[in-house]
């Protein structure tokens, strides 16, 4: 028996976008499933159809969002999107792309003086960490979300989460980075600075000296010096990292936030969505529903693959019907694919039958303009 697409409750995205009590929509899922396009389409629809002053935050290395919205570039500052149809609704659409190093720099500038900030920026370990350290992008996405929320300038913030290896990185990275910055080793490295600013290698005790020699052999003296200087410079900010991460986490647990899982009907993507749904349940975060992208539907759903192939074979034997035979065979392949996709999607529905879902038909070409985003938005928001 083929699973029905209607097995899950129908997701009403328009109800979410129109609800003034919803101030944050987080699109999450595995990489390559259409999160960026979905986020942009929802933000555009919120502005045009529901009159909301909306900002979409994307983490998109391909920069397709800028092209879709007709902008020459996106950066770490929200830019208003012109030329969209908001005359009747009164809404606005702003878009930005996360620059994780710029965001980290802004955090430093906000929480320390100019002299200390210059010292931090010049530190080689900081330069590497703010640009390439594992988890920094996800942490800075949380930082930027917290900043946008605190400003209170928008009715709705739509977040396109980073294209991580695991969708869970968005939730896990802040805690990992906080643990790193608060870790025992970094505290030991910071101890000499707290004893009067003596050199890293003017050690407080013989036991710490032994520890330092071992660490030097593993990490290298220069890296250890850079790391020690980084830790000492950021000492006053450690608590702030943890507090902001906790505050943003509470925002994500609040009723003003709606998580939308985005997946394609592929085993890995659906499995990732199921993992994320389980984690959201554990963390008591509000999961609004599942958007299943790139679903294939045959033009004649009542004609099954077996019947189509049988008809194609009969016509091929008769001869003279090559065009019809090709169409029937193509239909049979598409019908088989649709069945496989429904079976894959059913794995999520069976595990989370209470989670509303909506399927979006695969588009013939990549979305590259505002009209394409409108089409996707309408497909997601169908009643």
List the helices and strands and how they pair.
Blueprint (H helix, E strand, L loop, with lengths): L12 H6 L5 E5 L6 H16 L2 E6 L5 H5 L10 E2 L11 E6 L2 H12 L2 H9 L1 H9 L3 H16 L4 E5 L8 H13 L2 H7 L15 H14 L1 H13 L4 H16 L3 E7 L3 H16 L4 E9 L9 H14 L3 H30 L5 E5 L8 H11 L3
Parallel strand pairs: 1-5, 1-6, 2-4, 2-5, 6-7, 7-8
Antiparallel strand pairs: 3-4
Care to describe what's here?
With 383 residues, this protein is α/β, with parallel strands linked by helices. The chain is 54% helix and 12% strand. It has helices at 13-18, 35-50, 64-68, 100-111, 114-122, 124-132, 136-151, 169-181, 184-190, 206-219, 221-233, 238-253, 267-282, 305-318, 322-351, 370-380, and strands spanning 24-28, 53-58, 79-80, 92-97, 156-160, 257-263, 287-295, 357-361. It has an 8-stranded mixed beta sheet, with helices on both faces. Helix 13 links the parallel strand 6 and strand 7 (287-295). Helix 2 crosses helix 16 (370-380), helix 7 (136-151) packs across helix 8 (169-181) and helix 13 packs parallel to helix 15. The longest helix is centred in the C-terminal third of the chain and has 30 residues, at 322-351. The chain starts with 12 loop residues before the first helix and ends with a helix. Mean pLDDT is 81; it is low at 193-220.
